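Hey, can you fold this?
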Amino acid sequence: MTASAEARETALLAAQAAADKLATDVSIVDVSDRLAITDAFVLAAAPNERQVQAIVDEVEERLRRHGVKPVRREGVAEARWVLLDFVDVVVHVQHTEERAYYALERLWKDCPTIPFVDRAAPPAADGAGAPSGTLSADDVDPGSSDPVPLTPDPTADVPDEELVEDDLVESDPLQDPAGGPEATGR
């Protein structure tokens, strides 16, 4: 038995919603032969709790617009591993560390996967599409020793804007609003 057409469609919608919010390692596992309670798992990861929550919110909103509502939500408060149960499809959005530790793909390795290709990802040079974060020879400047991706890494640290010394204001929170130390007893 394979996942129903409705479950496949729901899983693909959820996977695309997650990918649209920059989820990594998005995959769909058809667990219909192993579990009687659901047909598919959608697995996605994010590097921080805020992004986990953004992915969860987008998946819920996208599926609600298609008339699918979760019957159960777990882990939302911690946002380390959030589970959204849509009955035929269960969405797991995990912090990257939890995703690596629990390795759900390994647990369900005997189950077939449902192919998912991120529609928003730029196509590879061969047109087949490459997973996000991978580089090809075309992405590297031959004059540089460091490969640089053509698209920015959303998880990279971005330096703060340079501040001019005149923009900085020194303040002492113990001083009164008028600026004198009289209010603090110093």
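Oh, and this one too while you're at it.
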Amino acid sequence: MGKKNKRHDVDKSALSKEGQISDYLRDIVLSSLEFEKERGDSLNRYVDNLMVTITILSVAYLAPLDYISNIQGLEEVYGISTRQILFVYLILLGLLGCALVIAVSAIFLRSNIALASPSEQFDRYSTTYKEACDEGGQIRERDLLKSYCSSLNITYRAYLLKHNNMWKRLKISTGLTVLSLIMAFVFLSHLLLTLL
């Protein structure tokens, strides 16, 4: 009888440790899903900031246009035609326009997030239960956790794909914005050096 109690205590201890490990693993699984959701929130804030930056740059680029085009003797004295200025402005604003469209398209990316259907969930858990019964009649927490993780994997992958695509678009949009800034700096530097 004493051996039976010791064995029962060992089984309880093993089940308790397995339960603790299962709880820990479940927390990790949920944390990874939560981190991916937070990444999406961060990318959305990035899009907002980028769109504000593009808007401010557009206004900053357009503000001196009237003044520059009205400089007396611009073409005769300095050799800069209004067409050249308008061409540069078209390039600058075209880059910003493309950056804006790409940034906005990043917002509207959809993630195909869906758990398996209820019947598929039932089948998955039933299979887990049947396998456990075939192996010794006891279903373990880790078996349920494995099934739970596989059901959340679809959601995680959908978030991951969406956020990776968002990040690619945002890098392109940011690159176009920086390129327009560099071109504006070069253009204005050239214009100022020509006028001085």
